[in-house]
Amino acid sequence: MLLHYALRMLKAFRMVTRTLLLSALTVLPTFSVAGAQTSAEAQLLARLNQVRVQGVTCPGSGRRPTAGALRPSVPHAQAARLQAGYISASGRVTHFGAGGSTPRVRAARTGVRATSVTEIVYMGAGSNPEGALRWWLQSPVHCYWMTEGRYTHAGVSVVQGSRGTAYVVVLSSQPQ
Fold it and tell me: CB 3.0–4.6 Å: which of 3, 66, 84, 140 could bond 166 by disulfide?
């Protein structure tokens, strides 16, 4: 009887361990080592900063004032990675994420505390960071918000999935 009970407990332990391991492996691709950026992410943030510092003319709003370079932030990048993972897996280019989360909620969950938070998103097959940036610059709303001077911090994520490559930038004002 004791041996039968021990075998049942071992089987249950294996099932729980396997479930936890599979859950962890599902989440791992959407996270990287804290602070580690891919070359695509670094390139996208560098180009975004170049556009902000030089100034740009946005469709619909005209010449935008120059804005300071964005300071890279690991919590912002983690929030961006959550949404990029969701977009690349689901194929839905949206600001609503898993469970209906919003950019502000995702940012807060990763530790971003700021008055103003926004995100810009893009997905394309065979795209690259420059292609995403060009698309945003041609979009009146995206161009306006990515050059908004009140935003001082940002995190970038580029996640390749079966439905395309998702590019997400989370921007915020000075953290509180």
Answer: 84
